[in-house]
Amino acid sequence: MRKFELADSEWEIAGQLRDVLKILKDATLFFSRSTPNLATVIPAMDLIDARMTTYSRDTKYSPSIHAAVRLAKKTLDRYYELTDTSEVYRIAMSKYF
Question: So what's the pLDDT on residue 49?
Answer without folding.
Answer: 95
